[in-house]
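INPUT
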Amino acid sequence: MNDMRPVERIVDTDKPKIAARGCQVYYGENHAIKDVDVDIEDKAVTAFIGPSGCGKSTFLRCLNRMNDTIDVCRVEGDIRIDDEDIYDRKVDPVQLRAKVGMVFQKPNPFPKSIYDNVAYGPRIHGLAKDKAELDEIVERSLRRGAIWDEVKDRLTAPGTGLSGGQQQRLCIARAVATEPEVLLMDEPCSALDPIATEQVENLIDELRQNYSVVIVTHSMQQAARVSQKTAFFHLGNLVEYGETGQIFNNPKDPRTESYITGRIG
Amino acid sequence: MPVLWIVVIIFAISVVGYLIGRKRALSMTDDGARGLHSLPSYYGWNVVMFAAVPSLLALAAWLLVAPLVIDGRVSALLPNETIPQVSTRGLVMEDVRRLASGIDAAISRGALTEDEAANIRTDFTNVRARLGEVGVALGSEPSQAVVNAAQRYRGLSAASGIWMTVVVLSLSAGGFGLAYSLTKAEFRARNTVERGILALLMLASTIAILTTLGIVLSMLFETTNFFRAYSWQEFFLGARWSPDFRGNSDLGILPLLWGTLYISLVALIVAVPIGLFAAIYMSEYAGPRLRSVAKPLLELLAGIPTIVYGLFALITVGPLIRDWLAQPTGWGESSSSVITAGLVMGIMLIPFVSSLSDDIINAVPQTMRDGSFGLGATKSETIRQVVVPAALPGIVGAVLLAASRAIGETMIVVMGAGAAAAQFQGGQFLNPLEAMTTVTVKIVSQLTGDTDFASPETLVAFALGLTLFVITLGLNVLALYIVRKYREQYE
Amino acid sequence: MSDATAPATGPAGVRVKKMSLLEQDDRTKRRNAAEKRFQFYGLTAITVGVLALAMLLISILSNGLSAFSQSFVTFEVTLTQEQIADAEASVVKTSKYSAIIKDNFQTALAAQGLADQVSVDDAMGLISKEAAAQLRNVATARMGDDEDVSRSFTFLTNGRIDGYYKGRVTMETAARDSNISPEQLQLADQLREAGLIEKRFNWGFMTMPDASGQRPEAAGLGVAILGSLYMMLVVLCLALPIGVAASIYLEEFAPKNWLTDIIEVNISNLAAVPSIVFGILGLAIFINFAGLPQSAPIVGGLVLTLMTLPTIIIATRASLKSVPPSIRSAALGLGASKMQSVFHHVLPLAAPGILTGTIIGLAQALGETAPLLLIGMVAFVREYPAGPPEGLFDPASALPVQVYNWTQRSDPAFFERASGAIIILLIFLLFMNALAIFLRRRFERRW
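OUTPUT
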């Protein structure tokens, strides 16, 4: 059952999956994100690191327009996914979020059964023609979330009855059920114990074979473990962006080096 | 001695006690107030407490118990033969009491001397006329037995009054003395006084229990009287309600229960959708300006007394429904109907449902909504498929509480639903444009009618009240249980 | 164990998933339409609620505002001392005074040249039957004076005349009505032109006692307002101390044992008991068992106290809870006893919330009707109760009960009176709630 074949999907390796230019974010009067330019690759894990309040989560939430739910938040600049400006007026955030999935810091399964948690996304987007196809999608997603074997016998049990790590994997399964192309993860392991963290990190490593994963983390060690590219944010600016190995061993910007060596943060 | 004077004397003793107690305490040390355990005023209050509290409690108890004891003793004097056929012992005792107080009034106004009063013989004296001269009205000429009983009553009351004065005042003086002797410098007056205050506070909080006990006992007592005169099977299972003051009534509760439930159902059909949607819109969609206008306006509906709703139903809604709905369709004639009362009651319940639902919806954590948005759901999908199911137990609890309120409502149905009970033959009881009365309306009408209090037609009101109490209590407990059981999933 | 790399396409074949974000697919369009419909339902619900409120208020106002103005007739009346003595000596005093009014009215009509329009009795029919009592009051006050009484009197017009000027009675209905005739109405119009009849603000509506079913024009709220006032007094004097004492005990001193649990359960149950059950309690215990007089404000006050206690207790406990523990700790740290810390520090800080809760509780009690019906307050009461404390035991009425009473009468003029009474009730409630909100804003502390 361990099919290691990658997904059949057309991937243009020259162009970045997500391209941001001149991105600004304002919370009321507060200029939270200043002039961010970044290219995110497909089929890779990109990590956003930086001290608290540097804006990494804020920028992450720009990528699936979750900031729209906050009244005082204003986003300017150009953010393109597959070369389409996601802030274009014609774009419906509802469709965007089917394509760009999100996993949150604290696991937030719905108070429904495990099956219904995963089936929720496909149901509202009309991805399944009938029950058989829905069952298939659910099983596939739970497998992708590395949790199928643990829950396959109790799909009708409530999702809130699982342990912390299982809940987070359930949320990941739920997110991939809508067949996204990008997965955004906002500090997915910060609420988990070390064993659960390891399980989720292994999962992330496998997920990158099918999705473009962007993960925000406050743990440099985690970024070093799972990501291929790393972006360092500081006080709303994107200070440095490059290959993970280079950022951690050979940072170019003194601020990056201060953070890496623990002088700031 | 009149009660007022006793209270005044106790008050005077307390005031004096305060001053003296305080003074004595201060005199016990060389240091003035610093040598005392507590502040000087506490020593004063200590004396007040000992002087006033036991004696006032004794006074209250005596006033409550003495009439019962005297009644019992005098009633035993009346042999059964002296009670006329059409009357009861209780009514004769009332005559005795009235005669006794009448004789007292006559003596105080000089129409009778003490001697004359002691020796009244009904064959010689026209008691009724003599008392009528001083403005004391008696229904009929009293018999000798009643006169004798009245004399005894007066005698016992007078003796009781004297003893009461003696006992209460000596309790007060004794308390004074005791507290005075306790007053020393090391005496922990503050602790004693505070213990006394704590006892008073605890007493105050037991009023809640006493009230519930009072409610249950008062209804239970008369209900058992009712069930002695009318079988409980026919009450709970009877399908006809037609009281007859000549006796031989049909007193089945089922028609009334049906009316109550039908009207409450209509009210909930109106209130729950409107209240729920209003709450959802105000908490999820509305901007702060709309919320600050709409919320107080809906709360206003909650503050309007039910008599106003009743008048609204009677004057405006009833005729409107009759003219536009009942008469054109030919289904009803009167302006009182189930729809009239149900509609107005529903309007009254809107803010109830809305504000409870608002609290419940706000309690659903934001992360749940975020999770749904992150999957690409629209706001209405999130509300319908995530928020409301999560809040469902609380919403069910709110609906049950609203139902309980609707079932217990009185004025709106008195003025909007009429007095005719539902009839189960034919389909008439299903017609919402028909007038159908409820349990609460009948409680009012049976207790404020002219029928004799001891008759089953009047006593049935207590049985109805007890049934109502049990139903609403059951609904409230159920609502609380549901809310509590499902709240745990968030904590 | 992990299948994160399972293919994204199912056995059904390759599904074309690449779609431009710039186009809305059909399903999304439908979902957005559903979203708009949902918002519309919500807005409609709010609108329905607000419209119902508006309809309620408009209906009450339109029916009741006219109760505050009344038609009066004014003319000269001469009352000699012999007439007064003669009337007071007779057994049927009011008919003597009626005759005096009749004569004087005829004189006034003659002065206007209207004496022959209708018969003398019919002319008298324009004036309210209450007028005789009004004249008697002045007469008995001036009895034994040196001079005769000679001045102009203002009397209420008959209920039907008043209805005529308020649109309830027309020439057509008067033709069928046994209490008034079209000729009388015409006379009234002429008197109006002559200035003898005019519509004025009716203070009597709020001060006069209730009147019998045939005299809706003379029915007033005086006794009812006084009765309600007495009951509020009783509630304030009883419910506030008991409620605060109970709250202090439960919040600060009560140990967590079964007795406290039972008390708390009882309080929350009592808050949800239907009001009519309290009426049954009042009837059974206060009237039957304790023998208090029926229809007396003391009984109503006691019943309302029991009903208001849960409200006051809940509000007081919330206020006490909101005082931060640091205040209590500070007091205890200085060596105060627990009771001193509560009474010297916590209670004064919680006072605004307690006050607000009490006012709201009183407002609720003011509007209660059902329990008062059961303790006999439906009785028709014409005398004002005496001043407290004796007056608490005299029979009285209450505002909401008076409204109910009036709606049970056959004359439709009483509907106008009932609506007017409700306007007064709502004004009182508005004032009390506004006061509560004002006090809360003014004195509320945000910890």
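end of record. The longest helix of chain B spans residues 144-182.
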